[in-house]
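Now for a typical sample entry:
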Amino acid sequence: MTTILGIPIQALFGQLLLGLINGAFYAMLSLGLALIFGLLNIVNFSHGALYMMGAFVAWLLLNEMGLDYWTALIVAPIVVALFGMVLERTMLCRLYKLDNLYGLLLTFGLALIIEGVFRQLYGISGMPYAVPSALAGGWNLGFMYLPIYRGWVVLASVVLCLGSWLLIEKTKLGAYLRAGTENATLVQAFGINVPLMITLTYGFGVGLAAIAGVLAAPIYSVNPLMGSNLIIVVFAVVVIGGMGSIMGAIVTGYLLGLVEGLTKVFYPEAASTVIFVLMGIVLLIKPAGLFGKGN
């Protein structure tokens, strides 16, 4: 059997695949967080709960309405985005001129409420969500076995992340969004409805979290704790990449997923802490993050 540094090659590439899948979810969730913070200046601690809500909406659509995975992949993000826009218009919009701490506390409270509601209704035991038949099975690549669904998750994540970056950084709409956060009064003078634009931006950010939830449903069990178990790691990813940096969130998400996967191979005891150790090192060297402004 072929080995690398004493590790069977199948085991090594298997862990790299798991790391890449985790990195895909880190990238999608941290992208939404970075987008909301960078454009709205809100530390959205409810992001994990909205990710969980996306998975639950997909599960409910399947079990209560008989709608398949592909339909859920479209409907669930829209439902969660609308819910997020209601939250933004009724609560978060009152905090934009206040210290970031107020937004963090409010969204943390919202996360506890959302999670509590789902725990009360469905308990904490995980509920299965079947892999769609079109993506079942896998490919034997010789050096590893690649489940088709996991390959699909990585591909979908890359497309979503790069598409979002292009939208924000390379289009006129993205320019309006960035300008609106810098000088809302000036942008409104050109006839742009800045409050509506901010609401849609928040909806887009939480919609990304919901898409990640739908993609995660067939891999992980659908349960109310799935977001809270992930959000702390995602915040670490955002801090390492640079608060508000869209590309930083994407690149750091994938890289840290791979680092975590390699750590599970060579030093499993550190796998759960390696990201936080790296966060500490980065903050000591570059307090604004790898891609953040101010370095």
In short: The radius of gyration is 19 Å.
